[in-house]
Design a protein that fits this description.
Rossmann fold; 47% helix
């Protein structure tokens, strides 16, 4: 699973990346600005992109809008401190998988990532075709939360 975390706050980037790495997700990249995020999303294949909404220069919805057409099988999860139903609805309409309000429970975040990754496989027509490495990574990451 290849994940990009986009947030202009270094502490948020570091804490989410550490959580994902501790859960066995090895391919976790970070980006602290919208312009660079758009470039990287268009150039690389990410399975999941975690986007902050409020950032300087370009916000998370602008990033989503600018990149979703290029990467229709990438799942975007908005992870933000902004608790606004209208923004959440707009994000979903633009193609976000989910809209989570910070502070988010670690287990809820991990479960949302897991479900988004499963959906990606179904939407891309790849259900059941994950590599053995992906299956092991998913299993290791989510064993503690799936009972």
């Amino acid at each position: 699973m290849n994940i990009l975390i986009v947030d202009d706050e270094q502490i948020a980037l570091t804490s989410v990346r550490c959580l994902l790495k501790r859960r066995g997700m090895r391919k976790v990249e970070i980006c602290d600005n919208g312009s660079e995020a758009i470039k990287r999303i268009k150039e690389q294949d990410f399975d999941i992109v975690l986007l902050d909404f409020l950032m300087e220069e370009i916000d998370g919805l602008q990033i989503l809008e600018a990149t979703k057409a290029y990467k229709p099988h990438t799942e975007f999860i908005i992870l933000t401190a902004v608790d606004d139903v209208a923004i959440a609805v707009k994000a979903i309409r633009l193609g976000a998988y989910d809209y989570l309000v910070k502070p988010v429970d670690n287990e809820k975040l991990l479960l949302t990532i897991h479900r988004a990754y499963e959906r990606k496989g179904l939407v891309a027509g790849k259900a059941g075709t994950y590599s053995e490495r992906d299956k092991k990574e998913i299993s290791k990451a989510f064993d503690p939360i799936i009972t």
